[in-house]
Amino acid sequence: MIIKASPESISRAANHIRDGRLVAFPTETVYGLGANALDPKAVAGIFAMKQRPSFDPLIVHICRLDQLWELVTSRDERIIRLARHFWPGPLTLVLPKSQLVPDIVTSGLPDVAIRMPANDTALQLIEAAGVPLAAPSANRFGRLSPTRAQHVEKQLPDLEIILDGGSCSIGLESSVVRLEPDGFRILRHGAVTSPMLTEIIPPSKLTTSLTLSDASPGLMLSHYSPETKLYILGQHPIPNDTSKAAYIGLTPSEIKGYHSVRFLSENGNLEEAAGNLFFFLHELEDKWLDFIVVEAVPETGLGIAIMDRLRKAAYRFHHSTNE
Ligand code: TXA
Ligand code: MG
């Protein structure tokens, strides 16, 4: 059930968390499906509700820096620099976990992913619950991430509490970053980009490219996918009949022959585009059109994360197997 975020509803949601139950809550990136990160049974509930495979680890959300030191064993001084600069915000750090973190949270891995979200409702909920929250995006596994409370309800209608904090200001999942002795590795692209990280923690060796063997366990080729077939303009051949199809362009231009047309940004601003992408995909998949065509965006800054999500969202429609 959707409940507007207020001091009363947050306190009710915090009791729910302490009881070992699940609560969906807003963050600046996407809505999360939260449970007490220190309670393995509660965390198991997240995997069950999302139908998420147990090999895909969860992000732990904190509201104060001192919570971090209980959850990780590393005292790398770069953590402080990154935290001071980017937290609260869309940066998730992958660090060696302490014994306090149950194995189910990290899918048995020795590292735990942690972030402090930049959203008052999220921070107040974590504070009131008195425990860190394990929270993946609040969607069914592999589907579109929710950027509105209504998106959560559409996919997870059985949830007792969905705290409504309006639309997510960023609208794309956080950057997931692993610290390495010589630098860092971006496991998932997001609003905190490689140049932004390099400015705060200059690597002694460039290690920012992904190789498959050390990719993040949850990063699959198919992910973030709408119900409706998705085509990327210039990358997939588009069917001729577009009369029952939708078109999503980057900036306004004259697009003819489509049932619905949307533009991600008035002036090509990639932050604005990122904020609208999942929103438009949710809206258009609800119309049960034949297919959706999306323009590719320039792969600079946030454009890298946008194209990463688009490729994964389109993947299952153009390949017969889920690799
Ligand atoms: O913006 C976000 O990060 C949102 C909000 C709710 O905070 N959360 C989110 O969670 O996107 P989720 O579960 O949808 O994606 C988390 C991803 C995993 O799929 C995995 O790729 C990576 O984070 N991850 C989590 N723990 C990890 C670990 N121990 N090692 C490597 N990668 C990890
Ligand atoms: Mg997700």
Say how many strands there are: 14
- CATH class call of the largest domain: Alpha Beta
What class would the helix/strand composition place it in?
A: alpha/beta
CATH H-level homologous superfamily name of the largest domain: DHBP synthase
Strand percentage: 15-25%
* H/E element sequence: EHEEHEHHEHEHEHEEEHEEEHEH
Structure description:
- This protein is an alpha/beta fold.
- It folds into two domains: 2-214, DHBP synthase (Alpha-Beta Complex); 229-318, Rossmann fold, CATH 3.40.50.11030.
- Helices cover 31% and strands 18% of the residues.
- The protein has helices spanning 7-18, 40-50, 65-71, 77-86, 103-106, 120-129, 149-155, 194-200, 270-285, 302-318, and strands spanning 2-4, 23-25, 32-36, 59-61, 91-96, 111-115, 133-134, 162-164, 175-180, 183-188, 229-232, 245-249, 260-263, 291-294.
- The chain is globular, with a radius of gyration of 19 Å.
- The mean pLDDT is 94.
- The structure holds threonylcarbamoyladenylate and magnesium ion (MG).
